[in-house]
Specification:
293 residues; alpha/beta; Rossmann fold; seven-stranded parallel beta sheet; globular
């Protein structure tokens, strides 16, 4: 696989929700930025290849693939899976990056307070802390709730939007905006070294989002709160590990009870980094109207 003389940018998670947008966002940069996508399987390699990107084998469950994947890599975009395994997997990735001579890691984490008592956010802070003491240059991206996850929990036939955090207004970010910020950082990582960038564009409750979806789509939607134990059962049914799902549900319960005040915080990061306004809920639903119509 060809490597640029000045180093390569390696993208993890290129076939996921954020990764797809990021790969698209970087397409115009290919003449001056050598981008390689990490692929866990032949299927993902073929999918990424349709965009014209070279791929390299990188399987987080096979630590022996990590160091070879980072040969010649200068900048790494690190995205973690929804699994308790991401703690040890992240450590292995950071260790391999250091050994391979990677200069900068752009780490996708999560929004929240640095002194958070909540496990789901705390795990991310532990990964950040390990990265910070590794000797590598770093940037942390901290998105709050993804707008893109709401259509996945929307029953169009019944007009129901299922959620876990009650009537509390939380802040949201579109995956496309995460990708835009990530691309800007990857183009000029030195400008963002040592920074944690909060990605939280608009605070809305699910009741408000259902009203916006109804107005924009022309169909009536209602927000339906799922209590903790039922939420846990749903997550386990779709394959979440209980050790990962239960802290997430505990966090959702705390949000619904108003015990996580920072969860509604917002920031102008998208505008400041990209020079373009962030996507609003109304704009997101208009853009994805077919998912609500």
């Amino acid at each position: 696989m060809p490597r640029a003389a000045n180093g390569t940018t390696l993208i993890m998670g290129g076939t996921g929700t954020i990764g797809r947008y990021l790969m698209q966002e970087l397409l115009p940069d290919r003449e001056r930025l050598s981008v390689v996508a990490a692929a866990r399987s032949d299927k993902s390699a073929q999918e990424l290849g349709t965009l014209g990107y070279p791929t390299v084998l990188m399987d987080l469950d096979r630590h022996e693939t990590l160091l070879p994947a980072m040969e010649g890599v200068k900048t790494l975009f690190m995205l973690k899976p929804y699994s308790i395994d991401y703690l040890i997997q992240s450590k292995r990735v950071i260790d391999a990056a250091r050994k391979a001579g990677v200069e900068h890691v752009v780490n996708l984490g999560s929004f929240g307070a640095d002194d958070t008592p909540w496990t789901s956010i705390g795990w991310n802070r532990l990964v950040e802390a390990y990265l910070q003491v590794s000797g590598l240059r770093f940037t942390h991206l901290r998105p709050n709730f993804f707008m893109d996850n709401v259509p996945k929990r929307t029953d169009r036939a019944q007009g129901r939007i299922v959620h876990f955090f009650g009537d509390t207004a939380v802040s949201w970010i579109a995956a496309q905006d995460i990708a835009r910020v990530a691309a800007a950082v990857l183009r000029n990582p030195a400008a963002y070294h040592g920074r944690a960038l909060p990605l939280a564009a608009e605070a809305r409750s699910m009741i408000e989002i259902a009203a916006i979806a109804s107005r924009v789509s022309g169909r009536q939607f209602t927000a339906v709160h799922i209590p903790p134990e039922e939420a846990l059962g749903q997550l386990l049914k779709v394959g979440w590990q209980e050790a990962f799902a239960r802290p997430f549900v505990d966090y959702m319960k705390a949000i619904s009870e108003g015990r996580v005040p920072e969860v509604g915080g917002t920031a102008r990061t998208v505008e400041d980094v990209t020079g373009r306004p962030s996507i609003t809920w109304e704009g997101f639903i208009e853009q994805h109207r077919k998912l609500f119509a």
